[in-house]
Fold this protein.
Amino acid sequence: MLYKINKFFPIKKIIMKPKKLQKGDTIAIISPSWGGPSVFPYVYESGIKVLENLGLKIKEYPSARKDADFIYNNPKFRAKDINDAFADSEIKAIFTSIGGDDSIRILPYINTELVKNNPKIFLGYSDITTMNSYFNQLGLVTLNGPSIMAGFSQWNFLGKDFQMHIKNILFENPKSYAYKKYDQFCHGYLDWSNKSNVGKTKLMIKNKGWNWLQGSTKIQ
């Protein structure tokens, strides 16, 4: 049975959990929001190198390194990469280069049947939450996690707890998982225009525990 909240977010009861990754698998790299790799290619390339060191093969789709202005002006072009990646039998997962602020503009061009018929890991955060939420409402289990430039690029700096968490989710795909707090965390990244900051984050902060937010404000 299908229920609809609105035009773009149908709710479906069937849950589709993608298969776990294995070394040697090919993953698609796309830029569905901001064309960050064209602005800071060295940050992007350091993240790609991390994925290759994890034993994954990389397939860059046309949007991956496309000029940021072109990316912004062509939402249909970005959506085509998503559709093509879901349709490509060689692709086992789809990783996003970075977030941004306008991915909602590509939703009208997404082929939802391709997504539902070819469940794959879809990974990203920030503005990528638009697509994670959309695909999740279609029934696909999606992952809110690191992007190439913001997360994987800082792999070594973020430490073993971060690395083990990501490896466990992507390569082990456990039936249940206890999400424990990290001992430390950071807020943002150093200035990417300075190449010496590649792979680094801002100062790590000691984690005192979970903060539970119980809001009462109505939002829209």
